[in-house]
Design goal:
alpha/beta; TIM Barrel; two-stranded antiparallel sheet; 47% helix; binds coproporphyrinogen III
Length: 346
Amino acid sequence: MPASDRFLRAARHEPTDRVPIWLMRQAGRYQPSYRELRQRYGMLEIALSPQLAAEVTVRPVHDYELDAAILFSDIMVPLGPAGVRYEIREGVGPVVEAPIRTGAAVAALSVYDATVREPETAEAVERAVAALSGVPLIGFAGAPFTLASYLVEGRPSRTYSETKRLMWSRPSTWGALMDVLSEIVLRHLVLQVKAGAAAVQLFDSWVGALDRADYEASVLPYVRRIFQGLESYEVPRIYFAVGSGHLTAAMAASGATVLGIDWRQDLPSVRRELGPGLALQGNLDPVALLAPWAVTQEQAQAVLQGMAGEAGYIFNLGHGVLPDTQPDQVRRLVRLVHETGLAANG
Ligand code: CP3
C-alpha cells in the first residue's frame, strides 16, 4: 500500500496494511536543513514564502517516509490579515503588540476574504501538494480558545489569567472574540482544503486549562461551528489538545472525525470510553525520542501494542517533536511503526 493511502484510510476507519505515522512539528528545528534555512530567513518569512514553505513542508516526508505532511505555517498566520501585529519570538513563542482585552479591541478585528488576503497560504499548499506526489497534506489552524489565549495574554502563559478573566467577567466580549476567531479559522481552513489539503487539524493546544463546564459553555460551541462548516468538504477533521483528558468526551462531541491524544492518556482506555466512532491519533511522549533508542523503542511498541488490530488509528507523538531530537531517532521511529504496526487488519 503506498504511503499515500495509509493516513487517509486510517482516518476513515478503513483497513490499512500498516499503522500510518506522521509527527506534529515534523518540520522544524530538529532538522539540520531547517536550522540552516533559519540562518537566512525568519520563521514567518518561511511560512509566508510559498516556495520556502512548500520546501520545508515536503522535506521530512522525503527524508523519513512519513505518511502525511503538515503545512509549514503557524497558528498566528491568519491573525495578521485580521489586523493583529505580532512576532514569533525564538524560544518564547507568539508575542502580540497590543493584547486584546476590550470590546473595542475585539471590534477592531476583521473577518476577511481568505482567497484575497492569504494568497501565500493557498500557493504554499498548491506547491506542497504538487511536490508530495500523492502523500496527503494536512492543513491546520489554531482553535479559537488557543488563539484567544495568545491575543488576550499577549504572549505564552502558564495560568491564562487574563483569558479566564475576560471569559468570566465579560461574556459578551468573549463571545464576540470567539465569533470572529471561529469565522477567520473556518475560512483559513476552507482555503487550504480548496487549495488541495486532504485533511485538517485544529490545534487547541492550551484548552486543557479549562474545566469541563467552562469548555462546554464557552468554547465547544465555536469549535462545533468550525467543524460543521467543514463537513461538506468531506476531509478528515482532526482535533488536538494537550493535558485535556478531562475534556476528551466533550471534545468527541465537537464534530471532529479524529481526536489527537496526548501522552498522559491511555489510548485503549480512550477508545473504550468513546467507542469506535472516532479515529484516534497519538500518543508517544515527545521526550521519549530523547531517550536511548532501546527506551524509545519500548515506549513506541507499548503504544502500538495498545492499539494493535484496531482500525481508525494513526501513530503520532502526544505533542510536537522537540528541537533537540536527533533526526536518526525520527528515522528509526518511522521504520519501527511501519515494521511492527502491521496489525491494522489489511
Ligand atoms: O511541522 C509542523 O508541525 C508544522 C508547522 C507548525 C508550526 N507551528 C511551526 C513553528 C505548526 C502546526 C505550528 C502550530 C503551533 N504554533 C501551535 C499548535 C501546536 C502546538 O505546538 O501545540 C502553537 C501553540 C504555536 C505557537 C508557537 N509558534 C509556539 C509555541 C512556537 C515555539 C516558540 C519556540 O521558539 O519555542 C512557535 C514558533 C514555531 N512555529 C516554530 C515552528 C517550527 C519554531 C520556529 C523557529 O523559531 O524557527
